[in-house]
Amino acid sequence: MKIKSKWLILAGLVVVAGLFAAFGLNHNTQAQHFTAKVERGEIHDVVEATGTINAVITVQVGSQVSGTISKLYVDFNSRVHKGDIVALIDPALFKGALLQATADLENAKANLAAARANLEKAKAALVQTKADYDRTVGLTKGGIDSQQQMDMAKANYDSANATVAAAAANVTQAQAQVSQKEAAVTVAQTNLNYTVIRSPIDGTVVARNVDVGQTVAASLQAPTIFTIAQDLTKMLVYAKTDESDVGNIKLGKPVTFKVDAFPKDMFHGVVRQVRMNATTVQNVVTYDTIIEFANPELKLFPGMTAYVTIPVATAQNVLKLPNTALRYKPPLSQEEILALYKQYGIETGERKRVNEDPAAPERSAPAGGGQNQPRTPRADAAVVWKLHADNTLEPVKVLLGITDHSYTEITALLKGEVKEGDELIIRSVTPKTATPGGPGIRR
């Protein structure tokens, strides 16, 4: 009895093992496919960039003269108006320089007066010597005076003329000295005026770089004391955009952006300029895209990082497929894939440029059937894999349009058929035994 029971148990184990082996063999020979549906809807192609928020006009207020800061009248975030006094440099040395220049001017004016007096004296002497010379000439002709007396009178007259000329030159020199001293007074007065630092614009103080008692030196360049932003209710974003994207950015395009300070808020602006000045960092070329936006509540501050989204194209009511379907490759050998291509009339190669394929059909029959806004399509052809109900695969060649990096527009069907709701394979899982030495997962 015990022997019979053992045989029954052994037979049962054999049957179970056979069923398990059969089930496992059938299970392992079937690949499991994961799919995503073809949808109909909108696609928004955008350019994403990172930028910095700046004021429209920012002025660095410096000092024209060197000295010690004696007073500061404003601080961070202070509102100022054009002409307001914002700082004062100790004026003592400059007042002394002005007093000295003024005294030198008075001295030059006195020298000018003395030179003019000497000129008048020389002119009077010239009149006297001329009269003596004329009288001597008449007497000499009458034989009364000798030739020697006439020569002496002529020499005195010539000397008086030279003295007048010298006195006139002294007057001119004294006048030049007066002008020079007047210029020195003007410079000293200007330097004294520069000790009072005023705001050049209406705005807000965004930076203060000095303290009271600090010495500023303006020998080589003007030191920056304050930085004033003109109007923080209107600001700019300087967005760094890649060279591959600047061709799609148009002036006047609406822009949205976010900042870390208000992660739940969306801010809006407009593209005002794409600057041609390129910046190259580690062989990456970028251009500054200037975005203007309103900041009426003064929520955003200069220097904040902005994460910018610039829409460049939109497609409405079109067929779109997931981008994961474009990256999928079936777990088949190259010969099997080529056989399927040949079966469904697809040329060799999974993807090629349309303008490099003269046999590609015209793009006059878009698959989406919707109305699209003007945009720049990708003009790429790709092969995606459709899953049938009997678990068979069909390659379909499509023409691609714009993408939002999650979905891509189908602009035309080149080979095969795809409609809304069709299942496209995005991933396949195959048993390890089905692929000798290979992985168990194919995508």
Strand order of the largest sheet: 2-11-14-13-12-15
Note the gap between the termini: 57 Å
N-to-C series of helices and strands: HEEEEEEHHEEEEEEEEEHHEEEEEE
Q: Compute the gyration radius: what is it?
A: 48 Å
CATH class of the largest domain: Mainly Beta
Q: Compute the number of helices.
A: 5
Description:
The protein is α+β, with helices and mostly antiparallel strands. The protein has 4 domains: 31-41 and 317-442, conserved putative lor/sdh protein from methanococcus maripaludis s2 fold (Beta Barrel); 47-55 and 229-315, Beta Barrel (Elongation Factor Tu (Ef-tu), domain 3); 71-89 and 196-227, RNA polymerase II/Efflux pump adaptor protein, barrel-sandwich hybrid domain (OB fold (Dihydrolipoamide Acetyltransferase, E2P)), CATH 2.40.50.100; 92-194. It has helices at residues 2-28, 92-141, 147-194, 323-326, 334-343, and strands spanning 32-37, 39-55, 58-62, 67-72, 79-80, 85-89, 196-198, 203-208, 215-216, 224-229, 234-242, 254-259, 262-281, 284-294, 305-322, 351-353, 380-387, 393-403, 407-415, 423-429, 441-442. A 6-stranded antiparallel beta barrel has the order 2-11-14-13-12-15. The protein has a 4-stranded antiparallel sheet with strand order 3-10-8-5, with no helix packed on it. It has a 4-stranded antiparallel sheet with strand order 7-6-4-9. α2 (92-141) runs antiparallel to α3. The chain is elongated and about 155 Å long. The two termini are 57 Å apart. Mean pLDDT is 84; it is low at 19-28, 349-378 and 433-443.
